[in-house]
Design goal:
7-stranded parallel β-sheet, 22% strand
Length: 456
């Protein structure tokens, strides 16, 4: 199934090109037919002879096992020369091994002023909005860095002054499309794929997902162009982990550590550690050891980690990193304040925020209208490689999470010493009841930016 389904195209002021797309949700880790993944994350016991263990096991299965690198959280990325059934269990059974998990892929969760600020209903409408204008009287995000761990950055007039020097953590040159592995250029090279690639039967164009997420958080305001970000005086640290066919757990884990100011082997120190991380990505399954350790390390440095709940209309407990401890998991609501039809739910969710919802409607005369109930933000019009900057509406929990990340940036702008636990407590304590309905549970309710920022 495609990640996105085109729902509507509209036009508006300032050469606005807007389209609404919807994705089925966080894709499951895609394992090619014929065996297990070729890449694992192995936590070896202290003092273990890793080389001997891998050689012995490789000989047993007739494969070459290679220790590629050590992660910031201590695990080792181990690759096998081919897919081999039973190798994962055999690795786990080794006495030298503490734990092992597949190096699974994560995927963008998108389904999702100033001339176009009136279209940003999610900020100000009394029913489904989160009362952002009231928060702007108190804080605008000054002094706060928000890391967007996503597809990278593109050139855009509403964001060019907001980007900090980020990093490209995609270790596979094929996934990165930039001809190399990790490097200091977080440029989004496009995540398009052809029919038959990435486990999909039909082709898909590039999403520019990270650019859309970044715009909701910190697009410039009062510049006479486009849209406004929630924390429009904050800075965005673009950290690239998603490319063609998504991104791996190992790359995402290192990115989380680095973005929060931790040390990653072979990567220069981050000169702009983020106090907020936005993860609008995910996959199915339990929260693995590697992801949990990376999140724990970020939280220990005082960084709040905001995560999209997922778009599968299912319990968020079955999706990672939404189900990881220590994060702020965000469900999505529509313009009327109901849980959006695609949004995950359950006790794993801490709060909800607008993610948008657009469905085609048949008018009495037989014509179809598409009310603009998605989330409008910055984007790019390139089908494969970057083209021109535009504005599009997306919908999804990928769009809900950056609303909360933006509010957290406002909170920290006013009160920089807040801990992640205090941030979560304030978000939940000052959320308002879901205006509509939320079957399955949407946490403490709909985030209220003004009430929360005022309280801190």
């Amino acid at each position: 199934m495609n990640r996105f389904r085109l729902v509507a195209v509209v036009s508006g002021a300032a050469a606005l090109a807007a389209a609404t797309l919807v994705a089925p949700g966080p894709a499951q880790a895609r394992v090619p037919d014929g065996g297990e993944p070729e890449q694992y994350i192995v936590q070896f016991k202290a003092g273990a002879d890793r080389g001997a263990a891998l050689r012995t096991l490789g000989a047993r299965f007739g494969v070459v096992l290679t220790d590629q690198r050590e992660l910031a959280v201590g695990g080792h990325v181990v690759t096998a020369s081919r897919r081999t059934a039973g190798l994962l269990a055999a690795l786990q059974a080794r006495g030298e091994v503490e734990s092992v998990e597949p190096d699974t892929r994560m995927y963008a969760l998108a389904t999702p002023n100033d001339p176009n600020y009136p279209q940003q209903w999610d900020y100000f409408e009394p029913t489904g909005g989160i009362n952002v204008p009231g928060a702007w009287d108190l804080a605008t995000g000054t002094g706060v860095t928000v890391a967007v761990i996503d597809t990278g950055k593109t050139t855009h007039p509403d964001l060019n002054g907001q980007w900090l020097a980020g990093y490209d953590f995609i270790s596979s040159s094929a996934t990165a499309r930039d001809g190399n592995g990790r490097d200091a250029n977080p440029q989004d090279e496009g995540d398009w794929y052809s029919a038959g690639e990435c486990g999909q039967t039909t082709a898909e164009t590039s999403s520019w997902h990270g650019t859309h997420v970044a715009g909701t958080i910190a697009a410039l305001a009062n510049n006479g162009v486009g849209v406004a970000g929630i924390a429009y005086n904050a800075k965005i640290l673009p950290v690239r982990v998603l490319g063609k066919c998504g991104g791996t757990t190992s790359d995402i884990a290192d990115a989380i550590v680095w973005a929060s100011g931790g040390s990653v082997s072979g990567v220069p120190a981050n000169p702009n550690p983020a106090k907020v991380i936005n993860l609008s990505l995910g996959g199915s399954g339990a929260c693995g050891v590697t992801t949990r350790l990376a999140i724990n390390s970020a939280v220990s440095r005082g960084t709040t980690v905001v995560v999209a709940a997922g778009n599968s209309n299912a319990n968020a407990s079955g999706f990672t990193p939404a189900n990881c401890p220590g994060v702020v998991t965000v469900a999505a609501t529509d313009r009327d304040g109901n849980r959006a039809f695609y949004s995950n739910f359950g006790t794993t969710v801490e709060v909800a925020a607008p993610g948008g919802e657009v469905r085609l409607e048949t008018e009495p005369a037989g014509t179809r209208s598409t009310p603009q109930n998605g989330i409008l933000s910055t984007l790019n019009d390139g089908a494969t490689t970057p083209g021109n900057p535009i504005y599009y509406t997306y919908m999804g929990t990928s769009m809900a999470a950056p609303h909360v990340a933006g509010v957290v940036a406002l909170m920290l702008s006013k009160h920089p010493s807040l801990t992640p636990a205090q941030v979560l407590s304030a978000l939940q304590a000052h959320a308002r009841p879901i205006p509509g309905t939320c079957s399955g549970g949407c946490g403490a309710g709909l985030v209220d930016a003004a009430a929360t920022v005022a309280a801190v």
